[in-house]
Amino acid sequence: MTPAMSHHPFVSVVVPCRNEAQHIGRCLHSVLDGDYPPDRMEVLVVDGRSDDNTREIVSAYARAAPYGALTR
Questions:
Q1: With bands split at pLDDT 50, 70 and 90, how would you rate the model's confidence at 12?
Q2: Which of 14, 8, 21, 12 is nearest to 50 (CA)?
Q3: DSSP characters for 24-72?
Q4: Geometric angle at alpha carbon 40, from 33 and 42, rounded to 5°
Q5: In the list 14, 22, 62, 65, which could disulfide-bond 69, CB 3.0-4.6 Å?
Q6: In DSSP terms, which residues pair with 7 in a beta bridge?
């Protein structure tokens, strides 16, 4: 880690969603693909009882997220 990266504050990204199967993958990819250090962030997906494929998509991203950065 470079000295500049060590100065990044820890951030939480909260993503509220409900029935967002068509969009949640792009949203999570955008957040996780950014240049912010993955060990300095967490992504919290708050699902409002989706009855589509949203939870499965979020679970797949959670398994692949760097540093366990994605929580559902």
A1: very high
A2: 21
A3: HHHHHHHHHTSSS-GGGEEEEEEE----SSHHHHHHHHHHH-GGG-EE-
A4: 70
A5: 65
A6: none
Q: What phi and psi, each to the nearest 5 degrees, are found at residue 3?
A: -55, -35
Burial of 38 (0-12, 13-18, 19+ CB in 10 A): middle
DSSP state of 15: E
The predicted structure's pLDDT at residue 26:
97
Return the sign of the alpha-carbon dihedral for residues 16, 11, 69, 25. Answer: positive
Q: Tell me, yes or no, if the pTM score tops 0.70.
A: yes
